[in-house]
Amino acid sequence: MGPRRVHNQLQGEATLSKTGTLNIVILLLAALAVLSDLCICEEKVLSPRLVLNPSRLYPGEFLVVFLEGVEPDDNISFQTDLPQTTLKAYPYRQGLISLVGVDCRTPPGEYYISARVRGKEPGVWQENLRLILEPKRFTSQYLQVSPKKLEARSSEKWQQDLPHIRESRSRSSDLPLWEEGFLAPLEGRKTTDFGAIRYINGKEVGRHSGVDIAAPRGTLVTAANSGIVCLARFLNVTGYTVIVDHGLNLFTSYCHLESLLVKKGQKVVGGQGIGRVGSSGFATGSHLHWGAVIGSTFIDPYLLVKKDPLDMFDGETK
Ligand SMILES: [Zn+2]
Fold this sequence. Notes:
By secondary structure, the chain is an alpha+beta fold. Helix content is 22%, strand content 38%. The protein folds into 3 domains: 43 residues; 88 residues, Immunoglobulin-like (Sandwich); 169 residues, Distorted Sandwich (Glucose Permease (Domain IIA)), CATH 2.70.70.10.
């Protein structure tokens, strides 16, 4: 029994000594890795990359701008010659992301989006990317309404509504609050297209800022995706209205409701009931006006159903 125990002990020591050697080798390798990493850091040069997706689109659509390879404390600025556009960027996956809506009245042609980065390293990095806006024909809508009805959308009524709308969209979550794809808030026949040129009693009054979907009074309207209700109240022109903040400056709005099922500040999930179809405000019949806004630029809301903006950020530049 004695010698065997000694033998076992020796074996144990041998194992220990093997583990010891292994530990030293691992430590050496780790030290080498740290050293080589330090070397990489010292030689590191500022190498951001600007991606636009898509880079060819139509008025009333949106694109995703992604600036990767930047440090949080870098001094970064974006510029564009797209009219009525201010790029607001948010930190996202080792970079910055910005959703950019193109106003439906923007003339076709070539535009640019540029990013300028002044990092800790001396020197400035800048990239200018070209954006092509294709021509698009929008439909026209002709409405005949009584003078009394017209009074609901007078400039005085608009002026009363605007501060509430502006205030609701003045802040947006720094994080995307939406999950997976967007869904239309109800099933129904589209009666007026996004961007349609509107004539009321023969006079051109502007563009249609959303999509009208016909539906019987009382039909449930659901949130197109998750977010936080940033407006839920009566407004002169859009009647009972809900606006949902989805984060990253993206909002959806639901207008002319008969009743509201949510309150301002409430979190909602996609598919949750937020109101019922009606004809409140300036409306000629029972329908839902569904809108999508990036900052203050309206885009066609059905684009969100077709493509999740977050699926576009790392896509190939088209
Ligand atoms: Zn409408």
